[in-house]
Amino acid sequence: MAKYFDVHPDNPQPRTISQVAASIRDDALIAYPTDSCYALGCRLGSREGIDRIRTIRKLDDRHHFTLVCRDFAQLGQFVQIDNDVFRTIKASTPGSYTFILPATKEVPRMLQHPKKKTVGVRIPDHVVTQALLAELGEPLLSSTLLLPGEDEPMTQGWEIKDRLDHVVDAVLDSGDCGTEPTTVIDFSGGEAEIVRRGAGDTSRFE
Prior knowledge:
Blueprint: E1 3-6, H1 14-25, E2 30-34, E3 37-43, H2 47-57, E4 66-68, H3 72-75, H4 83-92, E5 97-102, E6 118-122, H5 127-136, E7 140-144, H6 157-163, E8 170-173, E9 183-186, E10 193-196
Parallel strand pairs: 1-8, 2-8, 4-6, 5-9
Antiparallel strand pairs: 2-3, 3-7, 4-7, 5-6, 9-10
Helix pairs in contact: 1-5
């Protein structure tokens, strides 16, 4: 049965955030809010967590997982970025974007696209997520909480708790955070390619 945490959206309780971060370090799989809908998240090196996310969402090995990072300095440890791309991404973060880039050696191979050796990265503009990332001290391995056969992600923490009670370990609820997933931009080929249009404005990438 999943633990349920009611978190204040503007002033998340430090004790609660600390509890959740500790559970992630112990290999918990959580559902948590972001600036563009709820996501599933686990520890960066958790093979079990990856397998559980794949099972819940029915994903194949070509799916790009996302490393949700606290800031640009952390993001830069996990992906290779040239100067032009650096400036473009820096101007767009934090925000509702996921960027696909070549992975560095810091990224476990099981997270990389099997052929392209790429990974998704993002820096969310969300108080609760940022508090959790600060406490955790490393990125959260994440995937949008979009269930198979459904067109939109779930937006209510209580509904997530009700439906995923036996497949996740914890649910953070800080209120509705929308149904639109991130805009996905693939920079792995050197030029910006819009893979998915979502919550982030695409004008600067066109």
